[in-house]
Amino acid sequence: GPEELALLEKLLGLPKGNKYGVQGERKVPVLQTNNGPGLTGLMTIAAHLVKQAKKDQLLGSTAEEKAVVQQWLEYRVTRVDGGSSKEDIRIILKDLNMYLEDKVYFAGNIFTLADILMYYGLHHVMVSVT
Q: What are the residue boundaries of the GST C-terminal domain, all occurrences included (predicted)?
């Protein structure tokens, strides 16, 4: 949520000052912008921050890379954030292990926003694994 976005902001070298909040039962992140309506959703705000930092390469360079990055961002929101049981976590880690078996990063050979947000989303799980 908001903590993750603040970490991303720092990683991207953006100045602090964005105001983050949450809305609804699921605590969906919200960014209040100065000029216009607020932005809602982790992926939407994260992509906005990447563009604000002029680091568009983190969203992928080719059409295929962009699609793969988007795919993993969706996976993060739908599976990782939604998975709460030990069985869900086990399946997610097994899936990721198989997928990453022959890859350096989620989008192949380039570091992207997918890698950053999957790390943030799984960090709490990994520190609790024996």
A: 48-130
